[in-house]
Design goal:
Blueprint lengths: L1 E5 L4 H12 L3 E6 L13 E4 L5 H10 L3 E6 L6 H6 L1 H22 L3 E7 L10 E2 L10 H20 L2 E7 L1 E3 L17 H9 L6 E4 L11 E2 L1 E3 H13 L1 H7 L7 E6 L5 E2 H12 L5 E4 L10 E2 L2 H7 L7 H18 L2
Parallel strand pairs: 1-2, 1-4, 2-3, 4-5, 5-7, 6-15, 7-12, 8-11, 9-14
Antiparallel strand pairs: 10-13
């Protein structure tokens, strides 16, 4: 199958492209390269441009009329930055996605897998959320994902398209074959910052928030290896129509599926696992919460297993090891 990936030159999109290729499919990449990297598009059909460029989207489909489905990953994703630059986040994530969805309607593309986020969930007792858990996005970034989901759901109900929103928990690691990984020089993700400390790029790791109502006071997350995440997308496009049949063909043509391991890990536990993998303590300190942060959550992964036949397989230690390896190689791969 041929699959269009918006944001396919980014961390997650490029890993999905590799997973699709390994499964015998053909990715087509649409990316503005604002944060994506051209190195991640080599050997692949690639269109440099904006997802809101209607003429470009039509060109992609004119040249690839056999595209089976679209995976929409393109978005700005940094939570603290979104509180400082809400206009840019609503423009890039919501406004441009609206134009993309309309362009897909015009070219007759009926299947869309959307990269959503677990950050839209409210904090619940016990911290484990199902797809029916209450929603309460607390940052502009999270609210953009929530809005994009609502828009896509309305489009599917009105125009006969079908959408699957995959709500990501916390991706870690890199492609195990080191074809791609975190592309930004300065990471805002917890594991990325730990790697930066280990490589001497920053002096210490700051645990942001130690007064949450968790077992050790630090935020709780569901850390999923990015390769497992990519495999879930392969299952989603391969089993797209079957998933809707299993769901009883809902009237609004829309499905929501959590992607995580089903296990909660606190930030302090992540640090401990990191030190175990490296075999040495890391410079660390406690700090205040960041704007927009919450205590966090982890997911029930039952729906993904039932609907997609998928479950996470790689350990947090594997994610840490792959992130470290990528951190050491990144400068040689990304020029």
């Amino acid at each position: 199958m041929k699959i269009l990936i918006t944001g396919g030159a980014g961390y997650i999109g490029s890993t999905i492209a590799s997973a699709l290729e390994d499964a015998g499919h053909t990715p087509v990449i649409l990316d503005s390269l604002v944060t994506g990297r051209a190195e991640f598009t080599r050997g692949r059909a690639f269109y440099k441009g904006d997802i809101a460029d209607r003429a470009l989207v039509k060109k992609v489909f004119a040249e690839h009329p056999d595209i089976f489905a679209v995976i929409h990953c393109a978005a700005l994703i940094v939570v603290p930055e979104s509180t400082e630059k809400p206009y840019e986040y609503y423009r890039e994530n919501v406004g441009k996605s609206l134009e993309l969805f309309n362009s897909l309607k015009e070219v007759g593309s009926k299947r869309l897998v959307f990269s959503s986020s677990a950050s839209i969930y409210d904090v619940v007792p016990g911290f484990m959320v199902t797809e029916d858990a209450p929603l309460k996005p607390t940052s502009p970034y999270a609210r953009t994902k929530f809005m994009m989901e609502m828009i896509l759901r309305d489009f599917c109900a009105a125009y006969g398209s079908r959408g699957i929103a995959l709500r990501y928990f916390n991706p870690i690691g890199a492609d195990p074959q080191m074809r791609s990984g975190l592309q930004l020089e300065t990471s805002t993700h917890a594991l990325g910052r730990l790697v930066d400390v280990q490589l001497g790029k920053i002096p210490e790791f700051t645990i942001t928030g130690t007064d949450y109502p968790t077992r050790d006071g630090t935020g709780i997350r569901d850390y999923i290896h990015v390769w497992d995440l990519a495999q879930a997308h392969v299952r989603a496009v391969e089993g797209f129509d079957d998933a809707f049949q299993k769901a009883g063909n809902p009237a609004d043509n829309y499905l929501v599926i959590n992607l995580g391991t089903g296990r909660g890990v606190t930030v302090r536990e992540l640090v401990t696992a990191f030190e175990k993998v490296t075999g040495q303590p890391i410079h660390k300190s406690d700090g205040p919460r960041r704007p927009g942060d919450t205590a966090g959550s982890f997911c029930s992964a039952d729906t993904a297993k039932r609907m997609l036949g998928w479950q996470a397989e790689l350990s947090i230690e594997q994610g840490i090891s792959d992130a470290l390896k990528w951190g050491e190689m990144r400068g040689r791969i990304l020029k």
